[in-house]
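Q: Could you fold this chain for me?
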Amino acid sequence: MNALRAYDIHIVGLENKRYEYDFTSDDAFFVALEQDLIQKGNIQTHLLLEKSETMIRLDFHITGTVEQICDRSLDEYDEPVDTRQTMLLKFGDHNEELSDEIELIERNTATINVARYIFEFISLSLPMKRLHPRFRNEEDEDDDSPTGKLIYRSDAETNDDEDGQSTIDPRWAALRKLSDN
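A: Sure. Below is the predicted structure, expressed as structure tokens.
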């Protein structure tokens, strides 16, 4: 947990104004968090802390790369990270997470540790499907090609019989009678 001490911000003596902090996170950061999602990476975080009487606003700008394992080939690759997130810490009489962006902290809190927020924001910026960059162009081409089968088309109400006349499906005809009433 000593590697995460660098992410402590002492808020007890701060005046009500804006402060800036810079953090660099490497492999030791991800190991110290004791998680399995990210093992290696190089991340730079610029934090803008704005303290007021009632709350602390934390604006994060996180950039860098993290090492991921491709779901298709199991090859390791570097996934770029570039995200901007905001966290609000409101002063209250107890600690509670109100939403993803708002937390209550006790008024007598002396120090906040931003390591958990940085890791969560990095995790949220990663794609759900981890694909090596060499497979991403193939995936895009597959999505745009019209080779997929059409399962249902909503405007296909009419069928042509052998005389060339179009007839309405009797199920649709019954529904039209209901809507006309």
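A (continued): DSSP finds four helices and ten strands in the chain.
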